[in-house]
Design a protein that fits this description.
Elements: H1 12-21, E1 25-29, H2 33-41, E2 46-49, H3 53-56, H4 68-79, E3 86-90, H5 100-112, E4 118-120, H6 128-136, E5 140-146, H7 165-180, E6 185-189, H8 193-202, E7 207-210, E8 218-221, H9 223-226, H10 244-261, H11 275-284
Parallel strand pairs: 1-2, 1-8, 2-3, 3-4, 4-5, 5-6, 6-7, 7-8
Helix pairs in contact: 2-4, 5-6, 7-8
Bound molecules: 3-methyl-2-oxobutanoic acid (KIV).
The site of 3-methyl-2-oxobutanoic acid has 10 residues, from loops.
Length: 286
């Protein structure tokens, strides 16, 4: 096991320094307090409360139904488990698209109510003016382009983006617009590695890839996917570092067996010392 260090809180400057030095940035998702504690202790740079919450924790079919209330509720729980990593909350669909004022107010709620350090939102050039307004309000913004799951239907489904020259050019413009608007970093989802490499070289802010190859400044995965806790489907770009669901099932089988055959709870999981009380109770009930 590699020794895990890092007790100092991660700052935006740390991420920018990592881009400059070529040291990779690590980001994973969390949706609850217990997982947040494990991630924070691991030495990870960024914990994202992604709106993937909707699919892996709440059982929705997509991220579209996720609400501000659900995000704030889960971000607050994660906040209580994070002391060191940078904590970013994902703005849910329709919390930032209707007007810039609404976007600023909702982004602010992630800081005021949930204690996040910043927010993430999906979109390129079209969202740049909104990003600028949120940043002007003093809120750090992470951009997200490429496959943007909240609008996946409009993009033709969950598929790789930027495969032809025109769409690759558009994504490059989007990346520049998001960076120019003041975002501190940019998620690149499901785009060819070569395109992610060009974007990473051109934009001054760190890029964090998911299904975007090895040239990004950092990598993000949905934790439940990479530890094998979400079995409904696994995107092809996910590497499974553990396969926890079968292990949990084994534990459940053992629990059911032991309760059924009386092996649990044994003396080591029970409280002794009530014998005299028992005698007294028996005598009183005669
Ligand atoms: O919602 C999410 O978890 C995300 C990451 C996968 C980038 O947007």
């Amino acid at each position: 096991m590699k020794e895990k260090k890092a007790s100092k809180a991660v700052t935006l400057a740390d991420l920018q320094n990592k881009k400059a030095s070529g040291e990779k940035i690590t980001m994973l998702t969390a949706y609850d307090y217990s997982m947040a504690r494990v991630l924070d202790a691991s030495g990870l740079d960024i914990v994202l409360v992604g709106d993937s919450l909707g699919m892996v924790a709440l059982g929705y079919d997509s991220t579209v139904p996720v609400t501000m209330e659900e995000m704030i509720h889960h971000c607050s729980a994660v906040r209580r488990g994070v002391n060191r990593a940078l904590l970013i909350g994902d703005m849910p669909y329709l919390s930032y698209q209707v007007s810039k004022n609404e976007a600023v107010r909702n982004a602010g709620m992630f800081l005021k109510k949930a204690g996040c350090h910043g927010v993430k939102l999906e979109g390129g050039s079209d969202m740049a003016p909104t990003i600028e307004r949120i940043v002007k309000a003093g809120i750090s913004v992470m951009g997200h382009i490429g496959l943007t799951p909240q609008t996946a239907i409009a993009l033709g489904g969950y598929k790789v983006q930027g495969r032809d020259l025109e769409s690759a050019r558009k994504l490059l413009e989007d990346a520049k617009a998001v960076a120019d608007a003041g975002a501190f970093s940019l998620v690149l989802e499901c785009i060819p590695s070569a395109l992610a490499k060009i974007i990473t070289e051109i934009v001054p802010i760190p890029t964090i890839g998911i299904g975007a190859g090895p040239y990004c400044d950092g990598q993000v995965l949905v934790t439940n996917d990479m530890v094998g806790l979400f079995e409904k489907f696994t995107p092809s770009f996910v590497k499974r570092y553990a396969n926890l669901a079968p292990k949990i099932k084994e534990a459940l089988d053992d629990f059911i067996d032991e309760v059924t055959n009386g092996a649990f709870p044994g003396p080591e999981h029970s409280f002794g010392g009530g014998e005299e009380l028992l005698e007294e109770l028996k005598a009183k009930n005669k």
